[in-house]
Design goal:
Elements (H helix, E strand, L loop, with lengths): L5 E12 L3 E13 L4 E5 L6 H8 L7 E6 L2 E2 L4 H4 L3 E4 L11 H11 L5 H9 L15 H13 L5 E5 L7 H16 L3 E5 L3 H7 L2 E6 L2 E7 H6 L5 E6 L2 H10 L3 E4 L4 E4 L5 H8 L5 E7 L3 H9 L25 E2 L9
Parallel strand pairs: 3-8, 3-9, 6-7, 7-8
Antiparallel strand pairs: 1-2, 1-4, 1-15, 4-5, 9-10, 11-13, 11-14, 12-13
Helix pairs in contact: 3-4, 4-5
């Protein structure tokens, strides 16, 4: 295995359901996160993303594979590095009658962290003026900030965040982005899972995409996107029908739309403007269509770009949503997950 802050090789995990029987959640998954990266971890609901994080942190027992965190074998040696890791996985729960400050103070005392650190993390996540309020009065976004604050208490070298922008408004999302960037600038390695793909593209330098329990893409964000660049250009012209006819006659691949054309496989856009201009058809717009993380995600997974967890008409959970089934992890009997 290549040396990294997080190393996962061949991870497999199967659950057994009372209603659906055997379900493979993770099927031979690999992940490498190197020191100093802000690494995006993407996948639709039911893809195995959260199961992977839970297995990495020892919250469920993997069936097969190898994992290391900060050089320690997981889960056996996790206690040796736990003080250097901060993590939020799924939606954290807090005692509603405690204030935000008291919640973090108890966590600090339990973890051997100086209590003075509580005020620092409340300031970091934008809750400095709300720390004396009871958690039950917090909005979803405020609870998410409190969860991030709890993960920062130990000044972690590695920060694992599962949907940290959940419930945040646009200003809060930007603040979370700035916080992650600031942490990375100070040497913290961040593994970030999110459904807000535009944010991942803005924040992360590397990305891994999982679909149906398997890795389908990994690498620097720019390289992953470049692999899906089809040299497409949007074209608008004064005579769109004539423009389409001329471009097709020139051997170019053209897709017609009501108010524009998309020309594919053209690395040099001057071929488009020259072909049309020579025949007296004037180009009004010629714009390169570069792939973004959302379009790549859609192409690789075939799922909605912001896939939430939709409910069915009858209110039940959709296929693949553990909330709709009683999942049994046969490997974790007697283990407090």
């Amino acid at each position: 295995m290549t040396s990294g802050v997080i190393e996962i090789e061949g991870l497999r995990k199967t659950f057994h359901s009372l209603r659906r029987g055997r379900r493979v959640a993770v099927d031979g998954f690999d992940l490498l996160v190197e020191a100093g990266q802000v690494h995006g971890f993407l996948g639709p609901n039911g893809s195995g993303k959260t199961t992977t994080l839970r297995a990495l942190l020892g919250l469920v027992r993997a069936d097969d594979g190898r994992m290391r965190v900060l050089g320690a074998n997981a889960p056996e040696q996790l206690p040796q590095v736990a003080g250097r890791v901060g993590a939020i996985v799924e939606s954290p729960q807090f005692y509603g009658n405690f204030t935000g400050y008291r919640t973090l103070r108890l966590l600090a005392l339990a973890g051997g962290v100086p209590v003075a650190r509580v005020d620092e993390v409340l300031e970091q996540v934008g809750l400095a003026d709300r720390g004396d309020e009871r958690v039950k009065g917090y909005s979803l976004g405020m609870k998410q900030r409190l969860a991030v604050a709890s993960a920062l208490l130990k000044r972690p070298e590695l920060l694992i965040l599962d949907e940290p922008a959940n419930g945040l408004d646009p200003a809060g999302i930007r603040e979370m982005r700035d916080l992650v960037r600031a942490l990375a600038a100070n040497g913290v390695t961040v593994l970030l899972s999110s459904h807000i793909l535009a944010e991942i593209q803005l924040i992360c330098d590397h990305v891994t995409i999982i679909s149906q329990g398997r890795r389908v893409a990994a690498g620097p964000v720019a390289e992953v996107l470049a692999g899906f660049d089809h040299n497409e250009h949007l074209v608008r012209a004064d005579d769109l029908a004539r423009a389409e006819e001329l471009l097709l006659a020139a051997g170019l691949t053209v897709t017609g739309h009501p108010d524009h054309l998309v020309v594919s496989g053209v690395p040099d856009p001057t071929a488009v403007s020259r072909t049309l201009g020579e025949q007296g058809v004037w180009v009004r717009e010629l714009t390169p269509l570069r792939p973004d993380l959302e379009s790549v995600f859609l192409e690789l997974t075939g799922t909605p770009a912001h896939p939430g967890v939709p409910r069915q008409v009858d209110g039940s959970a959709p296929p693949g949503d553990p909330a709709g089934d009683q999942e049994i992890d046969l490997g974790m009997r007697g283990v407090d997950a």
